[in-house]
Amino acid sequence: MALRQISDAICDHLAQPEPARPLVLSLHGPPGVGKSMFHLLAAHALYNRQPDRPGLRCPGLDCAGYKVLYGMDYTADERAAQHSALRAALLDHVRHAPESLLVVEEYDKLDCPMRGFFRQLLENGPVANATLNKAIVVLESNLGYTELHDLLLRAGDRSKIAPEEAQRVLKDMVFSRWLAEGCEERSDTMKMVGMVSFFLPFFPLERRHIRQLFEMRLAERGAELQNGQLGALQWDEAVIDFLTEKVDFEGDFPIEGAKEVATLMTRYASRPLRLWAAAQQQQLAAQQQAAKKGGGSDGGSSSGGVAAAGRLRVADGGMELTVEPAKALS
User: Where is this region: Disordered (predicted)?
Assistant: First the structure.
């Protein structure tokens, strides 16, 4: 739901030669569901950068308009100095890159002075010779996890939730939160909330999504083996079951979203796959050496051997994974 709305909103905003206001997207959801990955991929697309390019600096010089603001919750002693420095840096960035992709992480933690500054920047157009009208502003927050979780449980299926329903839930939540903080008059709080173009839900992942992610990661590892001419990689459902069972769930929802997938792949799959790759390399080297001794290089063929397919499976005892030649398990 969120990604479809985001892509359409960005395309419509970019189609305007002189937009009257910035596109402001408020992303909500628990950790590990793809909010940060979204704006990184958006930066690659907006600045025409290939994510797999060696040495890509994005954020950085290769995506000069892409700026992510972290850690906006300051202690009282450092607040004034940090506000001044942040305000100066932000205005300088917008002056040099008016078509910015500006991300404010954990924006719900903005204190009253910083929220007032952002309201001024979003509402009044030019500030200190800088304007955000051509910019895309992403407000990112973990706030709303409980509301989205309950909404998903009530609907029974995320496909049954209308975008307007999710927007209303998130908008009301942010308004109530800001109003309770008492930073400004109620009418100003309403204006600030009204400046957000879209409130977008990143719903909690479900068990089936975690299984799909493990399948994708194993497919990536298999492609790496094949690209290195080290044979194909196979696995069965028991491997996906084994990895998925290691994830912490609350009901059908992973507590940390997708964050545990990479950790568990490293913990259980990386070592057996590296050992298998090393064994394949040694076997191929031996085959090539034997082919040379037998005169196999004279006929124009230099392969010297073919790597066997490997099959990842749950080892005996059920505590780890191992890789064996696929033919040994047939």
Answer: 287-308
Q: What is the rounded CA–CA span in Å between residue 318 and residue 178? A: 50
User: Domain spans of the chain?
Assistant: 2-201, 207-329
pLDDT tens digits for 112-162?
Answer: 888 887 787 777 655 556 778 888 999 999 888 889 989 988 998 888 999
| Type of residue numbered 310 | G
Instruction: Flag whether the pTM goes above 0.85.
Output: no
Residue 159 backbone zone (phi > 0: left; psi -120 to 50: alpha; other: beta): alpha
Distance in angstroms (rounded) separating the CA atoms of residues 236 and 84: 57
How far is the C-alpha of 47 from the C-alpha of 67, rounded, in Å? 13
pLDDT in tens, 186-233: 998 898 899 999 999 999 999 999 999 999 999 999 999 999 888 899
Class of domain 207-329: mainly alpha
Does domain 2-201 bear CATH number 3.40.50.1100?
A: no
